[in-house]
Recover the amino acids of this structure.
């Protein structure tokens, strides 16, 4: 075992404690990564807010860094390689989903980057709010040249989560896409949809997002409190990506979907209720997505490097993780906090 | 105005009263139809069971018969033509959905065959449990030669409701389709899926449907109470058509859908709750459908004539409509009641 430093939650408070963490010595197929930058995801906030306090919980599942050591069987990476890690660090490898390259849907459930259970030693995984992470090499990704390591950290969770439905739903030139909610996921969804050539709109409660929507490349902003504008956009979009993280009525968003189009609900992962009539009237579809497989993650990173897509971030020293969580909770971020881990050793 | 006889509900009891009904004299674009056969739909049961009793309610929205009179502008039909009418008898004709041939999704709402409001005189429409119906010619369909008039009556609601998603989801040779619920909709869904060349399974609570499933052309039966069999069918179907009419948990059916596949919920039209995780894990989609536009209805009838598809029916004199509703309520029908209206004048 080896030691590193990290930030742990002790109960539901967002004030995190600096702690010394144990990491396993690299197995033959592991790489050790010096974590440089880790994004702050809504999942982190949820994990902290629902944490009982006894168990060790170090959040963080979208990070970039540099390989510092490789296991003896590792051939894909060498020391010094810039890498990225997302919210999955292992899977069974043998089920139909893993075989299809969709490790995120592993029938035996993928191992999560934190609060997961290691498939070999049964330990609880601890996340990227720490200076070092040891990960199976299959679940580390080369960070393409040209991508800023800090701004690209959020691609590994927020980015892949919106990339997957854009890709699965065949979004490309001419597709009419709307993105509901302009936060961490939403602003990346806009950038990716625009880069894919889609005609892209933003749906938001507040008109003050208009300037940002245009800056991100969107054609227009639909304000949900403007009922006339909402009615005018009925049946207009082939794909609506709903990135709103709080529970909400899907009806108004389904009504914006064109015939045979899809509402992909990405931001809120609890139970959702829909009126069958809202699906029926226009043969609309409701879908969801989360994370992505290894192949899609690598493809997404290559696409982002080619098109200059990364997150709009506010970079904070990792000691200010609690402040980032607090501000994320009240929606005070444009559009993703990233922690700089260089204040840990 | 002219007179005919029909069967009205007076409150939520299924015992219907024989009454004399007024029908309008044909307008220039109307045809008058002698109703010979009318299917008994779950919607009829629901309408009767929720009927307050004061207003006139004559159910019935899937019927076949013969044209007896045509309005002066009608060119598509002549007296003596065999015709069929479904659950929509008018629409605005000018909205985007009507222009696209999807009158069933008319933005101003289509006029329903009964309990709808006529767009011209504001009267409440009365349905096909009667000897005559007067309908705008655009919403009558030629009944193709070779289709039995009694067994094809249910095609006009049950048939088109399952045809639409099969068509919209591109079901054809090689598609893996499962039909949940083997009732009026379900048995037609199996026949149509098989005729389209799909590899078709039936999902049912009871193993005693196995013989019928095979007779209808299905490859196998999955019994939902057999948890091992259910687990073995996980992620197996490109399309699951859920024709179960009672509220139920969609989770077990979503888990049978293959990656990027669709669960089309057709039998129950109220609010439905799904766990986002059931959609997420496999990028699955939830959709619905109901009825169809004029173009699809005509295409479905032509397909059924070509492939010899019609409903398995139990034919009853219309005086026994109440008995049919009672037995439908307890699931005692294989697979659709059709009323013979020749006992009315």
């Amino acid at each position: 075992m080896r030691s590193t430093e990290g930030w742990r939650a002790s109960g539901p408070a967002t004030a995190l404690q600096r702690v010394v963490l144990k990491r396993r010595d690299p197995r033959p197929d592991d790489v050790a990564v010096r974590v440089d930058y880790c994004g702050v995801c809504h999942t982190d906030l949820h994990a902290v807010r629902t944490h009982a306090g006894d168990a060790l919980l170090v959040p963080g599942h979208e990070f970039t860094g540099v390989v510092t050591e490789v296991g003896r069987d590792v051939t894909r990476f060498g020391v010094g390689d810039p890498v990225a890690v997302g919210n999955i660090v292992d899977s069974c490898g043998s089920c139909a989903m893993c075989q299809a390259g969709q490790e995120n849907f592993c029938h035996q459930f993928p191992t999560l980057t934190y609060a997961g259970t290691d498939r070999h030693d049964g330990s609880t995984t601890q996340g990227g709010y720490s200076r070092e992470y040891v990960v199976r090499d299959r679940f580390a990704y080369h960070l393409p040249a040209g991508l800023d390591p800090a701004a690209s950290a959020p691609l590994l969770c927020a980015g892949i989560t919106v990339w997957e439905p854009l890709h699965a739903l065949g979004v490309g030139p001419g597709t009419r896409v709307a993105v509901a909610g302009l936060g961490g996921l939403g602003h990346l969804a806009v950038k990716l949809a625009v880069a894919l050539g889609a005609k892209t709109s933003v749906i938001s409660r507040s008109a003050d997002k208009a300037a940002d929507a245009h800056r991100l490349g969107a054609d227009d902003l639909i304000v949900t409190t403007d009922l006339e504008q909402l009615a005018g956009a009925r049946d207009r979009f082939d794909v609506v990506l709903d990135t709103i993280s709080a529970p909400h009525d899907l009806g108004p968003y389904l009504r914006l979907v064109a015939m045979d189009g899809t509402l992909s609900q990405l931001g809120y992962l609890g139970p959702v209720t829909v009126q069958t009539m809202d699906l029926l009237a226009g043969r609309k579809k409701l879908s969801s997505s989360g994370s992505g497989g290894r192949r899609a993650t690598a493809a997404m990173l290559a696409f982002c490097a080619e098109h200059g897509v990364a997150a709009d971030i506010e970079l904070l020293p990792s000691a200010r993780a609690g402040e980032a969580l607090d501000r994320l909770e009240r929606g005070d971020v444009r559009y993703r906090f990233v922690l700089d881990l260089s204040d840990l050793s």
Q: What stands out?
A: The CA atoms of residues 78 and 312 of chain A lie 30 Å apart.
